[in-house]
Design a protein that fits this description.
With 270 residues, this protein is α+β, with helices and mostly antiparallel strands. A hairpin with a 3-residue loop joins strand 8 and strand 9. The chain has a 9-stranded mixed β-sheet with strand order 2-5-4-3-1-6-9-8-7, sandwiched between helices. The longest helix has 21 residues. The protein binds 1,3-dihydroxyacetonephosphate (13P) and zinc ion (ZN).
């Protein structure tokens, strides 16, 4: 087996991508995931030679220069990624001047990183500024959350409160709430900038009528965050058209936050 595939975090990255496909979140080439590798992982597992240089569409933040990431291929199918990682993912190093991706492994047959590379680079930089341990940026199309953005008012506070009220774990897992963007054209610098702005104080940002971005220190954490928002959205969808008799009120939400020593998004609870 190739050395890079023996790296435990790459193994985990591939199995989570496979799992996302199985959940129905990542049809065809839908979704993209990037993961910063630790220095010791780069030294132990990443081939030293640069196979190819790929220009980046924006200049990467100084925080990312010299860093190495695993990132999914544009047009790559999630359902094939675990079986054919050399085709569907690339291991890239950001050049010292931030203008190029130096390809060390993968993207066979002339592949390139995701079209959402703007959002990935900008969100990594935004998260690293507030949390130097952040390693993951994950974009996916979870079915219920996406459906919900067709059905509710696109208001960040209202959506957060509604998701928190569905189940006790919501406020525990995302006390800062969810960021929410209106529909915007994907694969652009503009949506990347808007997502990264929200990522300064949210780990999860919903793209209306498209999907979601999540982040985290580990791939389990980023996946778990999106999974929890998606579960709450699924409950909301199941409630539609029914009279809601019970849900968690502000007192309950405050009690949960106090019990778990969490600070809910300021100004959301009365
Ligand atoms: P890529 O195939 O370029 O990663 O695009 C998929 C996607 O989800 C766009 O938002
Ligand atoms: Zn998408």
């Amino acid at each position: 087996m190739e050395k890079i595939l023996e790296c435990l975090s790459i193994e985990k990255y591939l199995s989570i991508i496979d799992n996302m496909y199985r959940l129905g979140w990542d049809e065809r080439n839908g979704g993209n995931v990037s993961m910063l590798l630790l220095k010791e992982e780069v030294e132990a597992y990443v081939p030293k030679a640069v196979i190819r240089e790929i220009p980046l569409p924006i200049v990467a933040d100084p925080l990312l220069r010299g860093k190495t990431l695993a990132i999914t291929r544009t047009g790559g199918y999630f359902r094939n990624t675990k079986a054919h990682p050399e085709h569907n993912i690339g291991i890239i190093e950001i050049s010292p001047d931030g203008t190029k991706a130096l390809l060390h492994w993968g993207f066979e047959d002339d592949g390139c990183f995701t079209s959402e590379v703007y959002a990935h680079l900008l969100c990594h930089a935004a998260r690293l500024k507030v949390n130097p341990n952040n390693r993951i940026v994950m974009h996916t199309h979870p079915t219920n959350l996406l459906a919900l953005t067709h059905l509710v008012k696109l208001d960040e506070k209202e959506l957060t409160l509604a998701l928190w009220r569905t189940m006790t774990e919501s406020i525990v897992v995302f006390p800062e709430g969810v960021g929410l963007l209106p529909w915007m054209l994907c694969g652009t610098n503009e949506i990347g900038q808007a997502t990264a702005e929200k990522m300064a104080d949210h780990r999860v940002v919903v793209w209306s009528l498209h999907g979601v971005y999540g982040s985290g220190d580990t791939i389990d954490e980023a996946f778990g965050l999106i999974e929890t928002v998606e579960k709450a959205a699924e409950i909301m969808i199941k409630e539609l058209g029914h009279e809601i008799i019970n849900d968690i009120d502000d007192e309950g939400l405050k009690a949960i936050a106090a019990h778990f020593k969490l600070t809910p998004h300021p100004g959301y609870l009365k």
